[in-house]
Amino acid sequence: MSRPASTHTRHYRIAAADTYTRGPRNRPAREGHLHAERAERELRTRLAAGERPSVVLVAPERATRAKIGQDGHVSKVFAWAPPAAGDIGLRDFWTHVPHVTADLDVHAARPDFASDLYAANGSVWVTSGRIRRLAVSQWLAPVAGQLVERYGIPVDVDLTPELPPCPPIGVGAVLGRSMLPDALIARLLALPRPTRRLIEPHEGYRPPILAAEPPWGEWGDLISNTLVQAGKALGAPINYCGEFGVLEYPPGYQFNEHTDYVDENADTWDRTVSLSLLLNEPGRDFRGGQFELGGKDMDLHRGDLVAFTARTPHAVRKVTAGRRLVLVAFGEYRRDLGDVDS
Ligand SMILES: O=C(O)CCC(=O)C(=O)O
Ligand SMILES: [Fe+2]
User: Fold this and answer.
1) What does the alpha-carbon distance between residue 35 and residue 290 come to, in Å, rounded to a whole number?
2) Taking the complete model, does pTM exceed 0.80, yes or no?
3) How far is CA 236 from CA 40, 167, 230, in A?
4) Greater model confidence, 203 or 79
5) Which of 88, 190, 227, 272 is buried deepest, with most CB atoms within 10 A?
6) pLDDT in tens, 227-273
7) Does the CB atom of residue 260 touch ligand 1 within 6 A?
8) Which cofactor does it need (predicted)?
């Protein structure tokens, strides 16, 4: 059974693995596209000249679907990290780098796109010139689609499979006291301020400001482990670490009651767990700014963590003096990633 390419293929570009370089983080999306286009043009020239380099798939805007800010800057992009050996682990799903790439390592003796044996990092298997298997992450289906479209490799698998549904999640929260030592809090608060906004202010309503973006390399493990633990405690699945950052509420700022789940994307992913970790002390560093969960004030102090399912209504009351600082993070369930062992 051979099927036409999926409609997602236009999001991906192919580049030569030996020359492709990733661009800087946080660059405008348009630059990412131009960069990827240039790389693909170069590859095509080499292919036309008879060269057969290994190929990297580049999807500059994959994550931009979720994470491009109003100013057009890519804030966080999901990368497919090639496993060193064996299966792909949790860590690989959670590696954030500026581009989505998937290595299509050609394991044939004489690499040729129309011939015998290709393996694509546990994602797409092409054998005897046909795509036989897609593994782990169904978003790689477009990868296969691209191979079909561009190189004429037939496909034996369903490129648009049914994704497993996200299990039902209720409303609930857990509380952790003194979860972050002072030294770590101090490091978070010393991070440089980003220039982009998180949410635009509306009339009569001033939501918090993004005060820092902790680098993934330094904070990713701590944040993702905390999310995983919280998810377990709440019975909410997490297979991907979503956005995280330090928020600041100056006087007059608040967060109206809301939930954090994202239903417009429910066909592919959902936020499942939210974390809020207070970074300074109410009464001393700021006034007002109480965290409300399900309509009730929580008694929180510096270092305390509230983790709640993303369907739990919550709010932050108006800060009346000083500045409230908080670390927030979101765990997601991406249906296309499937279950991940931790
Ligand atoms: O400031 C907080 O504690 C919570 C922030 C929040 O609700 C959010 O970022 O969605
Ligand atoms: Fe929230």
Assistant:
1) 45
2) no
3) 40, 8, 8
4) 203
5) 272
6) 988 999 999 988 777 788 999 999 999 998 888 887 655 556 788 99
7) yes
8) L-ascorbate
SS (H, E, C) 183-229: HHHHHHHCCCCCCCCCCCCECCECCCEEEECCCHHHHHHHHHHHHHH
Higher pLDDT, 310 or 267: 310
pLDDT at 36: 73
Three-state DSSP class for residue 124? strand
Strand partners for 273: 309, 331
DSSP letter at 19 equals: T
Residue 174 has pLDDT above 50, yes or no: yes
Query: Which residue has better confidence, 58 or 320?
Result: 320
**Residue 242 · residue 331 · CB < 8 Å:** yes
From ligand 1's centre to the CA of 6, what distance in Å? 37
Q: Are 169 and 15 in contact (CB under 8 A)?
A: no
Tokens of 82: 């090639």
Number of the ligand 1 atom closest to the C-alpha atom of 247: 1
Q: Given the structure tokens 């051979």, which residue do they identify?
A: 2
What does the block give as tokens for 128? 């005897």
pLDDT in tens, 103-126: 333 332 223 333 222 223 233 444
Residue whose tokens read 């581009």: 99
What's the order of all strands across the beta sheet hosting 55-58?
A: 13-16, 55-58, 101-104
